[in-house]
Design goal:
Elements lengths: L4 E4 L2 E3 L2 E3 L4 E2 L3 E2 L4 E3 L2 E4 L3 E4 L7 H12 L6 E3 L5 H4 L2 H7 L4 E4 L1 H10 L8 E3 L5 E3 L4 E6 L9 E5 L4 E5 L19 H4 L1 H12 L3 H12 L5 E4 L10 H11 L5 E9 L4 H15 L4 E5 L5 H10 E11 L2 E2 L1 H12 L5 E8 L6 H9 L5 E10 L8 H12 L32 E7 L2 E7 L2 E5 L4 E7 L3 H9 L1 E7 L5 H8 L29 E15 L2 E13 L8 H8 L12 E4 L5 E3 L19 E3 L1
Parallel strand pairs: 8-9, 9-10, 10-11, 15-16, 17-18, 17-19, 19-21, 21-22
Antiparallel strand pairs: 1-2, 2-7, 3-6, 4-5, 7-8, 12-13, 13-14, 14-15, 19-20, 23-24, 23-27, 25-26, 26-29, 27-28, 28-29, 30-31, 30-32
Helix pairs in contact: 6-8, 6-10, 7-8, 9-13, 10-11
Bound molecules: MU-OXO-diiron (FEO).
Length: 616
Amino acid sequence: MHCIKKVTDDLIWVGANDRRLALFEGVYSVPAGVSYNSYLLLDEKTVLFDTVDKAVRQRFLENIETALKGRKLDYLVVQHVEPDHSAVIPELIRQHPDIKIVCSEKVLTFIKQFYEFDIDSRVRLVKENETLNTGKHTLQFIMAPMVHWPEVMMTYDSTAKILFSADAFGCFGALNGALFADEVDFARDYMDEARRYYSNIVGKYGTQVESALGKAAALNIEMICPLHGFVWRTNLSEIISKYMLWSKYEPEQRGVMIAYASVYGNTENAAEILACRLRDKGIKTAVFDVSVTPASEIVSAAFKWSHLVFASTTYNAGIFVTMEALINDLAAHNIQNRRVAIIENGSWAPASGGLIREILGKCEKIDILENKVSIKSGLKKAQLSDIEAMAEAIGADFPVSAGVVQSNQTAPNTVDPNTMFKLSYGLFVLTARDGNKDNGCIINTVMQITVTPITVAIGVNKANYTHDMILKTGKFNVSVLSEKAPFRVFQQFGFHSGKDTDKFAGSADVSRTENGVRYVSEWTNGVISGEVKQAIDCGTHTLFIAEVRQAFSLSGDPSVTYQYYFDNIKPKPQPPKGNKKGFVCKICGYVHEGDTLPDDFVCPLCKHGAADFERM
Ligand code: FEO
């Protein structure tokens, strides 16, 4: 029986899942299965994008016939000839002899290498950026060599803004009834498999992936349809940003991956002790036994972590067999841009360390620590200092942050309000509209909470008139101030109340978003329109949680931070003339003259309390 899924009104997923495959490409375990994706476009002409592996041939053919509803199949776009996507082409041709095969010259060569049928009479060759109109839709062909084979081509549907991305943005794992990445917790359940897929399948070709990403960046893409894994229709940046890191061999995670090969547990012991010493320093670690964990998972971890440690016993005068395979695998996948440390063991002639160094030393931008731990059979007390020295050398790359308490320190049991200044904040103009009244104020508390849907939280002082307007209307705009914002913007929106004044008086900037609320288009780099879903009473402030209805960028200028404002924008308080004594508001610069400042004093300009004043 057919099993199809609607992607859009005229695009159908006709692929299938395979949970019986023992090893993908004969080498990568896929315990959660894999999907072979194929998509059928039902335009004035019908277009099939790729086929599937022979293992799911029958379901696939049923799917196509069901989705076609008796129509003929006009085009087959072949983007990648690896047999998990092309195996059913000969049978498809037998069933649809009038079909035209749309492909590149290189694809044609590969099809002829793998299969024997009359393709020349059916082929329509396309080149870079050539287009094919199928009725409402226009397809643009984009060459993506070595992502993952040399013939790979991607297709951009400029009408629907869909990128058919071939192997790029794929993922191991069957789809389990879902089709879109936003139907699952992708970050939690699938990102590791997306990285394992990327690093093992195309990891070697970072430069070519970067080039394909460059081409994709020029397109207005709203959906990505890969050949394996989930379709992306929201928050595309979640996967694209990972590809930007992986293709440059940039680590995702600061921390240390330790992989060890140990026959009788002594090398493992050294690896474990090192992991403990690193953790003592507040450094994140992940430890793998290379004889137990499949190499593809450790290759993936090596693409994730910033520092790599390899600990191996010596075996037949070489590197232990599973470690040797891993090290060669990493070198073959072009691992680079990492700090590496090595622990070796050997009962009569330790040699594994030098041999690992020899292989990894040929990789680009691999910095191998001079610190060496060389064990003869088992680690001795006298060598604990070698492990400690290695942990120290690695730890030098991880400056202790203010938040990390060393194991020999006691955390002070206090609530020091100054610690709050360690938090980083931006500064924003918050605007609202009630009837014909526009108003705005300066806030520093805006944060994104969720991605699907995009929600933000804003904290607003109840003393602000804008607060009451938002409470009433449920609508607001946040204009993100850039470092170019002059002090007068903060004076305009921050130091007096909209109840008494029109904060937009005389302003030539009359920009409004779809919700009718004004925003500030000058000195800002982005605007976010929110619709309140929840208001949480927090005493002096209300925390509004809102869904983002509109968001757009205005400039590439950096956002201003609280610290930048104090260091560069807020005028420095002038020394009082004569012998005047007083207190200056750290927020707005207001000066209160006198010997004392009452505890309940509130700045008449910015409404901040006595805690924000300092003695002049
Ligand atoms: Fe799923 Fe490169 O093929």
